[in-house]
Amino acid sequence: MNEKIGFSISGYGVFVVLLAAAAFIVSQAAAGNIEMLTVVVFILMVAASPGFFMVQPNQAKVMTFFGSYVGSVKTNGLRWTIPLFKRVNISLRIRNFESKQMKVNDSQGNPIEIATVVVWSVDDTAEAVFEVDDYISFVNIQSESALRNMATSYPYEQHEGDDVALRSHPQEVSAALKIEIQQRLGKAGVKVHEARITHLAYAPEIANAMLQRQQASAIIAARRLIVDGAVGMVEMALTQLSEKKIVELDEERKAAMVSNLLVVLCSDKSTQPVVNTGSLY
Fold first, then answer.
1. What is the tens place of the pLDDT at every residue in 263-277?
2. Do residues 3 and 126 touch, judged by C-beta distance below 8 A?
3. How big, in percent rounded to 5, are the helix, strand and coil portions of the chain?
4. What is the pLDDT of residue 266?
């Protein structure tokens, strides 16, 4: 069911007409001239009075006539419509929904805790009122369901390559989450403006183990960088010694020099120099 514009006119003009009708009735009553026209005008004035309603900014009125949808009114101010129309108020303001922290498994089976905040508003008033029983509850439940499904589609952290992960690619993950939530809420006439992950962490039962794993990965990465730099520095030292003919080294002395330089450059502690006052042999 798609939204359509319902019948309504400015209530101020109708109010002026009713005032004129009231003045006419009073004047006729004062003159003692009560005729059928006066009675008819009085009946019409009383019958038209319930047709007034007020539309606040960023609100709408959904109108039905004996169970049939006849349209929605979004024009602000005092309005008037057919008094027999039943009117339901619905807010068009932007709202926030913050989910509770949920424990789910990522794509690799690791238990994680995750939560999100969803910024949404009603876009189609007819669908919001008639397609679902309670559109606010529908938004809450479907947002949490979409978050749970999204979390199981990605790993918590990136291990190799350029794979999208929950921790390393927040923008991509948020975009995917917004699309999935919008697909679920579109049938309820709801527009999703933004969806962001507000909490992301390993579950307590594996947090310590995963922290040690992250520390080990960081140490390995740092050691790899140090070794690559040390090898380059040793290669540069040997090349410059050879090009500048500072000293001639045979293969055994080169091996000893390489060993000493790598120990100095790669050690995580200060090395103690040994002064050789004699021959290498």
1. 666 666 665 666 555
2. yes
3. 50, 20, 30
4. 65
